[in-house]
User: Fold this.
Amino acid sequence: MNIAPSRLTSRVASFVACALALLLAAPAAAPAQMYRAGDVIQPFSLVNRATGQPVSRDELAGKIVFMEWFAWWCPFCQLAARTVGPALRDAYPDGNPAGIEIIHVGVNLQANAESQTQNFLNNADFDVVLNDFTRALAGRFQNGGQPIFAIINGVAGSPSHDQWELLLHQDGYGDLNFDDNLALFRAAIDSVQPPPPRVNGITIGQGGSRSIELNIPAGHTATAEVSTNLMNWEPLRENLVGGGAPVTVQDAETRPGGRAFYRINARRNAAGAAP
Assistant:
């Protein structure tokens, strides 16, 4: 059956109108929510400027992560680069007061400007520089402007904060003096506490010998102690250094009653002192 052109045109127009109405009625994807202090930073990956390799959030674990977004042409970024990094390095040569390492991550926002960016970095003091050209991560903190500062706790098991908790976000756009910012940065950094020392587990071997796995906080030196009655304690091993993988201590001695209890006494290392 032939359809008259006017009827065909009318049907096509109706179909297009219906499709357009459905498209307009479809809910738009919700924009990513802005991070606020106390939020947990979700996994991310940015490219290392030096190596071209991706660096994930989890590769920064165990540290206080200080992120600073910049663009080489931004005068406020230039001032921050000359001020913030050196101040942090002077204040924390051996980590925060609890001995937790701080990593200062520069995050480059400007693509296709390698020589200008390198000139900028020659006057900066970052531990590593990542690229965020599309502002994929920067956009979770603010919609525009730079420098952007974010301090994140990467320490698992901390009694003070969740791992990957955002401690502080600060917008540095328009700032010509970073003294007030530095006071806020230091307060956030100083607030992070290491996980408490603990006995992770005990393995009993042949002949009743025991292997005791211990967790010792970064920046601390510990003594493992043993007791058979929870009242009298004696050193089992001293000068155990914290901060790396769990430490295993051997106890080959046969104890009265065949039982033993273990604990850790940890002390904070003096600034600049070898453990």
User: Anything to note?
Assistant: Confidence is low (pLDDT under 50) at residues 15-29. The chain has four helices and 13 strands. Helices lie at 5-25, 75-91, 114-121, 179-190. The domain at 45-190 is CATH 3.40.30.10 (Glutaredoxin).
